[in-house]
Amino acid sequence: MSRKNIRRLGWLLGVISGVALAYIGVSSIFKRPPDVITTTATPLIPVNTPEHEQAMRPEYQDDVIDFEKGTRYWMDLILEEDPVRVAGRERVQYVNASRDVLDAVVFRVYLNSLAGKKVLDVSDVSVGGRAVDAEWEMGSSVLRIPLMEPLGPGESIDVALQFAFEFTPDIEINYGRLANRDGVFVLSAFFPLLSVYERGSWWNALPDLQGDPAYSEIALFDVTLTAPSDLKVASTGVTLAAAELSDGTTKHTIVTGPVRDFSVAMSRDFELLSAKQNDITINVWSAPGNDEADQFALEKTLAALNIFDAEYGLYPLAELDVVEAPITAAGIEYPGLIYLAGNSWQDENDFFEVVIAHEVSHQWWYSMVGDNQVEQPWVDEALADYSVEVYYREAYGESAGASIREQYQSSLDQYLAGGGPQMPVGLPVSAYDGRQYGVFVYRSGALFYSHLHADYDPARLRDFLRAYYIQYRYRIAHTEDLHRMIGEFFGTEAEAFFDRWVYGS
Ligand SMILES: [Zn+2]
Question: What separation in Å is there between the alpha carbon of 381 and the centre of ligand 1?
Answer without folding.
Answer: 5
